[in-house]
Amino acid sequence: MKKVWNFLRSMRFGLLLLGLIAVCSVIGTVIPQEREIGWYAQTYRAFHGAILLLRFHRIFTSWYFVALLGLLCLNLTLCSVLRIVRVVRTAGGESERAARLPDSTALTPEGVEALREHLLRLRCRREKIGGSEVYTRNGFGRYGSFLTHLAILLTLVFGALALYTPTVTDRSCMPGEAISLPDGTEIRVQDFRINDETGRLDYTSHVQLTLPDGRRSGLSELKVNHPFRFGPYKLFQQSFGTAGSVTVENLENGGHDDFLLEEMSYLTIDERNGIIYEQLYPDYIRDPDGEVTLITVTEGAYRNPIYAFEVLADGVRTPSLAVPGDSLEVLGLRFTFNEPVEYPGLRIKHVSTLFNALLVAAFTLMIAGLYVTFFFDPVVVKLDAEGYAVGGPKPERMRVELGALFAEYERGGEKL
Q1: Which residues, at least 6 apart from 410, have a Cβ–Cβ distance to it below 8 Å?
Q2: Which of 260, 218, 221 lies closest to 242, judged by CA?
Q3: pLDDT higher than threshold 90 for residue 207
Q4: Looking at the 3D structure of the chain, how many domains does it have?
Q5: Inter-axis angle of helices 109-121 and 396-411, to 10 degrees?
């Protein structure tokens, strides 16, 4: 049991966990996350089964990734707790232990005085213990490693809270329109395209986000695997769709209205006459006899769209087809079929500003811990009438510094 305990709190185990987490992160970066299963089957034809089985398509929420994070938190907790207990216990009687150190370097009275003046210039705190003087400085430096471990632990905890606790909403929005969220935030989609000018698929939106306090983002580009962040919100280009567009005009009074149709709809004013919109197809083939074969699947934008609907006149239904630009009249109503409208499906993730602030605080603490670790070496020097000794948790740098000091004195002709 002791071996297991020692392994769990060892640096070797921590480095192993960091390596495995890094591998998972690389996989999650290379393989787009949280797409529809069919997309993986089409994109990774040879090994999509392995991707789904190993949950590489949702690796950051997989059980093994969460387990790795938990084990790393355990490792850091054990390291931090044991380290701080040992450091506090050691710091308590360090001056007394230093006073009992045997002199490692003998000095003349002049050397003792020179060293005393040097340590006072370094603003060391002097303490008289028995017949010796103990000089200390940067005592806080012994806690640098603990602060760094604690900051890494807090970064993991707050990062996990920011990753696993946000509210996620999927919404569609037509270009030129806006959607409102429960807190008053408004998301406006200026435009959306499935293909770029060369015909390449790129699924790009231009969006603007306005927060409840009035802060407004600039017009920002949103693409697959290139999310947009503003305030507590992060927007993803999650999906897309193509809606039919029909203009209905009342021939009696000249009134008209435009309708965007995403599902089966009934367009009428008297519930007896009008059209029943069924579906928009991406393409079709017309044979020499005039028969039309509808194509149901395509990649990218609809190249040759066609509307399927039923004309309802005096209760009689007549199946019909129309292409963009066609019009028909049904008892005082004119229906004009327009070019379809492509629209994005947005994934809206809201992360608490508190978690973001705590994450920034953890990063700040980590930087402070690293700075203290590397630039605040604790100084513990015992000085008496015969010589001096260097103690503390990191005595090497002070020994080198004092050795260089006395070498400089000797080059000046002084015997110390």
Answers
A1: 416
A2: 260
A3: yes
A4: 4
A5: 120
pLDDT tens digit string along 22-54? 999 999 988 888 777 877 887 888 888 888 899
Statement to judge: residues 203 and 352 lie in one domain: yes
Q: Tell me if 218 is assigned to some domain.
A: yes
The answer to whether position 301 is within a domain reads yes
Angle between helices 353-375 and 144-164 (to 10 degrees): 160
Residues 262 and 332 in one domain: yes
Please give the structure tokens belonging to residue 171: 């919404």
Decide if 224 contacts 216 (C-beta within 8 A): no
Q: How confident is the model at residue 415, as a pLDDT?
A: 54
Closest CA to 322 of 355, 288, 354, 278: 278
| Same domain, residue pair 284 and 301 | yes
Q: Quote the pLDDT of residue 414.
A: 55
Q: Is the confidence at residue 412, as pLDDT, over 70?
A: no
Domain with 382 in it: 94-136+377-416
181 and 310 inside one domain: no
Regarding whether 335 and 248 lie in a shared domain, the answer is: yes
Whose CA is closest to 171, among 237, 222, 258, 260? 237
330, 388: one domain: no
What is d(CA 348, CA 345) in angstroms, rounded to the nearest whole number? 10
Separation between Cα atoms, residue 95 and residue 382, nearest integer Å: 9
pLDDT at 289 over 90: no
Give the phi and the psi of residue 123 in degrees, each rounded to 5.
60, 40
Residue 165, classed as helix, strand or coil, is coil
Query: Is 265 inside a domain boundary?
Result: yes
Is 183 in the same domain as 41?
no
- Where residue 63 falls among pLDDT bands split at 50, 70, 90? very high
Torsion 348-354-358-360 (CA) sign = positive
b/e code 254-279 from CB counts within 10 Å (16+ = b)? eeeeeeebeeebebbeeeebbbbbbe
Q: Are residues 325 and 360 in the same domain?
A: no
DSSP string, 183-243: TS-EEEEEEEEEE-TTS-EEEEEEEEEE-TTS-BPPPEEEBTTB-EEETTEEEEEEEEEEE
320 in Cβ contact with 309 (< 8 Å): yes
CA angle 270, 272, 276 (to 5 degrees): 105
Which pair of tokens denotes residue 164?
A: 């696993």
**Structural domain includes residue 369:** no
The pTM is what?
0.63
With cut-offs at 50, 70 and 90, classify the pLDDT of residue 261. Answer: very high
